[in-house]
Design goal:
heterodimer, A: 280 residues, mainly alpha, 2 strands, globular, B: 278 residues, MetI-like fold, 2 domains, 11 helices
Chain lengths: 280, 278
């Protein structure tokens, strides 16, 4: 009887290692496939080279790294003010009955597939940009706007939870001292919920930088360093997805190497989010 | 100069309410737009017919079968792993470096972008293990994607079961495993189901992972080693290559409606479960 219990415990431990094991496998395989080409090209040539012509042996991904960063920054510029505004209203100003309906509704929308966002971007947003602002329409701006919308549910939901975690007693004290609701939010709730809100933004950032399908559809995918927000751009994720279907040999290795760069950026963001959340 | 706090209060509140209205409008608009454009395209024959002329005509039957196939494989693989992990984390260990490592692994895995999972599934399942572009490769890759969700929700569900239940079991002489299988798991089941149902929604909507592991064959898959395109992949190809707008809208409508229904089910399950124990 006792040995059976011991066996079950060991078996469960094995199952519990599945997540970290998968993560390790992913890391090993991506690095095994991608590292040789980075070493051959030279790390600085690979990261700071602006010329990507994989069939001719040029593997520089600077344009894509910059595009990914710009698009993510753009998404934060559009998404974070909207998300924070919405979170403050739902957590602090709106009647609780309204929040009880709206918060789950917003969370449900996190389930809309990214291809649908991309599709709507192409048929609604891209023509608007082309008509009113010029350029090809498929652009850095379009990608930023779509990603900005896509990160809303994540950032709103986690920020509301962070603000709800601030004890009501603090708010009552502040109001009793004669502060207005907005003063209470700005001087008390926001600082107290800061680490949670930063975690929310970092997770939103991770989602934006890792997003593939929506970005492929609206960003235009041109291979150059963008100089304006109306330029067509190709992100790291889009580069992998566009070329993986037909790549072989060194070209395929270079796509895995692109994956390594993306993977490292995401791991840094995740670790930062975990550390900040853990400090609470 | 000192600004009147009451004036600021009113200004800021109106601004923030406007932002909230805009956010909710945008999100609701997306669903309404797809529903209005897509619902008129739907009919029984659209669901039951094969894809014809690369998607310009015909229905989406093969994509329904592929989606079902992929989701089922992912669930069969990920559910035992996820629930087992959660049982170990909540019932068998104290907080320590092992649990921290396992949780950190799950959190990082949750953050891995789908294109990286696609790359990984492609090199391991499609090439190294020689499964080819197939339901099996796609399903296994999706399983890795949904594993963190199942672990997290199952863990929360197991934690919500009152500790007194276990004390009673132990005092009656039940072993740990008997306690878990006969009392704790049945009590936590609705909460665990929430995670599984949410995972179904994610699997149905995923594109990048499936595209590079299950391929995009137009035929209906009949075995584990057949390639096939899921609904999301089919929609992506229709939209990107501009093959047929009516069919793209129709597919998008089915995709969104099924995911919303699934997520609403998950939400209702969770609410009912939480109400029982709080």
């Amino acid at each position: 009887m006792l040995t059976r219990e011991k066996l079950i415990e060991k078996a469960l431990l094995l199952l519990a290692l599945s997540a970290i094991g998968s993560l390790a496998l992913i890391t090993i395989f991506i690095f095994l496939e991608g590292l040789p080409i980075i070493l051959k090209t030279g790390l600085s040539h690979f990261i700071f080279g602006a010329h990507w012509a994989p069939t001719k042996g040029h593997f520089g991904i600077l344009a894509m790294i910059l595009s990914s960063l710009y698009v993510t920054l753009g998404a934060l510029i559009f998404g974070v003010p909207l998300a924070l505004g919405c979170a403050i209203v739902l957590a602090e100003f709106a009647p609780p009955s309204l929040t009880r309906i709206l918060k789950p509704t917003i969370e449900l929308l996190a389930g809309i597939p990214s291809v649908v966002y991309g599709f709507l971007g192409v048929i609604l947003l891209v023509p608007l940009i082309r008509t009113y602002l010029g350029g090809p329409g498929l652009s850095l701006l379009a990608a930023s706007l779509i990603l900005g919308i896509m990160i809303l549910p994540t950032v709103i939901s986690i920020s509301i939870d962070a603000m709800h975690a601030v004890p009501t007693l603090y708010r009552e004290g502040s109001i009793a001292l004669g502060a207005t609701q907005w003063q209470t939010v700005r001087k008390l709730v926001l600082p107290a919920a800061r680490s949670g809100i930063i975690t929310a933004i970092i997770l939103g950032m991770g989602r934006a930088i890792g997003e593939t399908m929506a970005v492929i559809m609206v960003a235009g995918n041109a291979l150059s360093i963008p100089t304006s927000i109306l330029d067509s751009v190709r992100t790291l994720t889009a580069n992998i997805a566009l070329e993986l279907g037909y790549a072989s040999g060194a070209h395929r290795e270079a796509l895995f190497a692109t994956g390594i760069v993306l993977f490292i950026i995401i791991m840094i963001l995740n670790t930062a989010a975990t550390l900040i959340a853990g400090r609470r | 100069m000192r600004v009147d706090p009451l004036l600021t209060e009113r200004l800021v509140k109106s601004l923030l309410w406007c932002l909230t209205g805009l956010t909710i409008f945008v999100l609701i608009f997306i669903i309404t737009f797809i529903a209005i454009k897509g619902l008129p395209q739907l009919s029984l024959s659209f669901l039951w017919h094969d894809i014809e002329d690369m998607g310009r005509a015909g229905g989406i039957f093969p994509t329904l079968v592929s989606t079902l196939y992929l989701t089922l494989i992912a669930l069969v693989v990920a559910s035992p792993l996820g629930v087992g992990s959660a049982i170990y984390l909540t019932e068998y260990t104290l907080e320590g470096w092992v649990t921290r490592l396992i949780r950190f692994g799950a959190e990082c895995l949750a953050g891995v972008p789908s294109i990286i999972l696609g790359l990984f599934g492609f090199v391991l399942f499609v090439i190294k293990l020689n499964f080819g572009w197939s339901m099996l490769s796609g399903g296994l890759s999706l399983a890795i994607m949904i594993l963190p969700t199942i672990i997290r929700t199952s863990e929360e569900a197991l934690k919500a079961v009152p500790k007194e239940y276990q004390d009673v079991c132990f005092s009656l002489g039940l072993s740990k495993w008997q306690t878990i299988t006969r009392v704790v798991l049945p009590c936590a089941l609705p909460g665990i189901m929430t995670g599984i149902v949410l995972s179904i929604g994610r699997s149905i909507g995923e594109t990048a992972v499936v595209l590079f592991t299950a391929g995009a064959s137009l035929r209906t898959p009949t075995s584990l080693f057949d390639s096939g395109r899921s609904m999301a992949v089919h929609f992506y190809i229709l939209a990107r290559e501009g093959l047929s707008m009516p069919n793209a809208y129709g597919t998008a409508a089915i995709l969104i409606i099924s995911i919303l229904l699934i997520n609403i089910t998950a939400y209702t399950l969770m609410q009912r479960f939480l109400r029982k124990y709080q």
